[in-house]
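Forum > Structural Biology > Help requests

Title: Can anyone predict the 3D structure of Protein HSR6_1125?

Hi all, first post here. I have the sequence for Protein HSR6_1125 but no way to get a structure on my laptop. I'd be grateful if someone could post the structure tokens.
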Amino acid sequence: MSKRSAQHLNHSQGAWAVEYARRVVEDAVREDRTPERAEAVDPVFEVNRGAFVTLEKAGDLRGCIGRPSASQPAIEAIHAAAIGAATDDPRFPPVVESELAPLTVEVSVLTPPEPIESPDPSAIEVGQDGLIVGRNGNRGLLLPQVAVDQGWDARTFLAQTCRKAGLPTDCWQDTPTEVERFSAQVFQEREPRGEIEAVGISAGD
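Reply #1:
Sure, ran it for you. Structure tokens for Protein HSR6_1125 below:
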């Protein structure tokens, strides 16, 4: 079994991840302290995985922070990402308690990145692949759903990931640049504190 198809979460596991991320966000905002990490209720969350937590308010991004490397158990990555999305996204002020009710929470659980030896837009599957570009200490990552949301083709997705890394948009064509891809399972609230659904990207069963 490849890394890209291994360790899929089912719907109940994904729903638990979103509910857990929401609890962490609310505790971090309401109690103004770092919430304690819960014990995983399912062994799948003790497997090392990267994760991102995205917060939206009325359809607009309100915070998104991730732990992309598979260097810690998934539950720790979700916990850290949820705190970061609520309190430490440099693009936004910290979430305040009055904003909690209209927030929706999304969790993306990542597969381990795989290098693309000879980057070619035809090798990128938009809607399936997320991208990481790195060179000379610069590093940029875009989740699979970003390309879908923005209507990008594979070449534009590569260019925008280079831009995210602070590199020229055509740097993916240069040999010193490292390009990796990964997939993600994405689970989100349809509405604040509402039903949780698996969306689009390798959603599993």
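The domain at 11-111+184-198 is CATH 3.30.700.20 (Glycoprotein, Type 4 Pilin). The first helix runs from residue 11 to 31.
Shout if anything looks off.
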